[in-house]
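We modelled the chain as a single entity of 486 amino acids. Its sequence is:
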Amino acid sequence: MNKLFTIKPFINTNEFDGLFISSITDDSRDVQENSLFIARQGVDSHGNEFIRDAVQKGASCIITDQKLNEEIDIPIHCLDHLEDKILEILFSFYDLSEDDFIFHGVTGTNGKTTTAFMAHNIIRALKKPSVYIGTLGAIINDDILETKGNTTPGIFEIFQILQTCRFKQKTYIFIEISSHALAQKRLGNLPFSQTLLLNIQSDHLDYHKTESNYINAKLSITELNNKNPTIIFVDKIQDLLESFSDDQKKQLSKSQFLSSTDTSAALKYSLEYNPSGDSHIKLSFPNLRLDVQVELFLKFNVENYISAIALISDQISLDEFEIVRNNTIKLPQGRGEILRLREGNILIDFAHDHQSIQNILSELANYHDEIILVFGCGGDRDRSKRSMMMKVAQDFASKVFFTSDNNRYESFTSIANDAMAGNSYASIEILEDRQEAISLAIQYLNKENILVILGKGHETYMDVSGKKVPFNDKNCVLEILGNETN
């Protein structure tokens, strides 16, 4: 089908008359025969630099916001204020309406995946159409669609996902929003019904360079095209508040708080946490008041569940929540996933920085006298956090197996040396082979202690020298133990 007619209202020219347009993209690598290539400003370069690549791949025309100082063989139109028109162009091209969707966004150093996934599954329990987009890929209702791999896809990829969602009801969209996506303004003017900031801990300093830049990126969720003020889980950023700049405090003032301690918070809750059974939650939200019992193994996952309800509390009624109450809470694979095995309990989680590791281990230390830990540090990523990760590991674990975790193009020896800098070698085993490390760790497992495997979570491969080698922590455990679970 020729989509030229969807573009004509935006270009006010006859330059494209007679052309055939079948697809649209801002990534020259995705150009196909008869694509419209949108040349726009990227993080480090402008799309004009890739126009010749787009032409070679078969693009039929170009729209750009910067004049090109050379001749090309296909029509090109320079459109002023292109960025302001991207959203409208995409809605038109895919024959979609803003009214078809209810967008929600979740950011935070930790918990984005679990919170967005839980909110998606609450909506699915109500038999309403819903889409999750994030680290796990895209889940359209209950079907998984593979994405390019970014936690937060670009706006063009998001619309490629949305075009598959032609349901008869409004569709709920839950998007994980990374600090990179916020800093790069990757989502443009996408209209959000509700956004949520879970927490801010130091991360991705290899990209953001300073903690202040990272905090600014996270707080900029309040500056998105938000219909309602961003919800901020204020209890989780208390230690940062005194150091906030005037501009950062101004961003906070635009938001509404979720809290168990601040009586003035718009969204209040109380929690009686029980690690071995049902935890009791009381919610006092503007549009939702309820008591509920939930059984989740880790306290922060109970808090993620509370956050998920807060995110959609304007969208569901108490009667609808009664339906949800009777459904088992679903967690994403590899996010606080507990394997209750004949040999003992094993926890698998995606935690891959020192704060998230401490969050898990400090909680487990309240209920277990001995923790056995398997973890590694990603190659070609922030080197400064490696020794801190090892320090936290040694503070809480009786035995640590340090191993590979997506070495990428860096040697395991280099990664291990960074991790051990300034740390003791006592009770540490360093093994490059992750399967061997897990196998040895399992030998220490018994009914009284717990084995914790961190860093990869749901991932199904190891990234080694540009190759994706199949590997999954849970599958590895079950293979070693003969797939026998209780």
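As a brief sanity check on the tokenised model: The two ends are 54 Å apart (CA to CA). The chain is about 30% helix and 20% strand.
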